[in-house]
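Chapter review: from sequence to fold.
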Amino acid sequence: MENILQAGFCCQEIQPPLGLNIPGYYHARPAEGTADPLHMRAAAFACGDEKAVIFNVESIGIRTAAFDIIKTHVAKACDISEDAIFINCVHSHTAFRILPVKDVEDLLDLFMLRLYMQFADVAKLAFEDLKPATVLTAAGEAKDIAFVRRYRMADGTVRTNPPVRDPNIVAPVDTPDEQLRMVRILREGAKEICMLHFGTHADTVGGHYFCPDWPGYLVQQFNAALENKVETMFLLGCEGNCGTRNPITPAKRPPKGVELAKYMARQLTGVALRIYDRAKPVAGDVLRVAHTYVQVGKNAWDPEKLPQVEELVKLYREGGEHAPGLDKYPDLHYREALRINANLSRPEFFDLRISGVRIGDVSFIGLPGEPFSTIGMDIAEQSMAPFTVVTACTNGHEGYYPDVKAYGEPGYCYEKATSPFASDCATHLISGALTVLKELNQ
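The token string follows.
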């Protein structure tokens, strides 16, 4: 069969039920309504005998066990390989988590069953929309939009999200990835598909109403700016250590809420529009998929602290995040205690899936959780592909992946304290990603 790239698209609204818990914080948030609808988008690709589908889902994340169920449904519905399915979630903190079904009489599980079928439907409709396509790429600097969350303090410790204008802040200890990447897919006789890629937390809204946060508004605003002649989808970059606030020199902007999300989207839409017409054609006559698994150990703990861990976990379960006594141990935060307690029953090693899709000169790498920005930048820098897009929260959402240096820094670092993974997790992710890239591009 001739190697002519074809691409199709489908978008559907997701309708989670009221009362469903909105995850992302350490307290329950039953949904009371919808501020703006959540969506599932799929771009389907075919070239020769190969097929693949890339999803953009306005969800906080997808558990690996749920991905394993969904990939079976999608593969069967579309007659494609299970390896050819790439599900990226935007990590909105006002959405839902995609979970494996446990009890079909439960409200959450009934919604999940419907969602599984929607994945298959959206993918099938995207494949039915296939048109001959060409690929263009572009990248531009998006300054002062993503900010690191970890800062060196005057006492030498490192702190996550210190107070705004705290005089004890010395300097940031990380570097955000300030590149906005764009993949344009021009289709014969159909709307263009435009993929936008950027990495920082989608946590600007809060509250009890479903909302896609700034990634959803970015899609809306970019589509509107181009007179709705494009079908836009967003892919989340590596953002485990990045947020949207600058505690040193905060800019004038709306307070936390929908208007802040729209403000963020306007900043990124401006960057995207500047690079849109600069996009250059690249090869698009190859379609390949690949994946590998890396084994990562557990984040270590001090066995002598286990009685304290048991005590803090009990206090949290009985009284929530504001329970009296949770701060009684200066060297053990209750969130770290929750992680240690969870790791006690976990296997010795985690098998983490790293997924890849190559479309011509563009290689997509998906990591199953929230890697630090430095991990994504290291993978892209070492990649042999002409254009590399490294995504977080893809085909799994299993926790934070700090870089190596973060584990040795003094002080309370939220990401290090709550990550279930050993201090060499970044090394394994980078090595695994490069293995997948080599397979895609050999």
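Two observations follow directly from the output. The mean pLDDT is 95. The chain has two domains: 6-289+357-414+425-441, 299-345.
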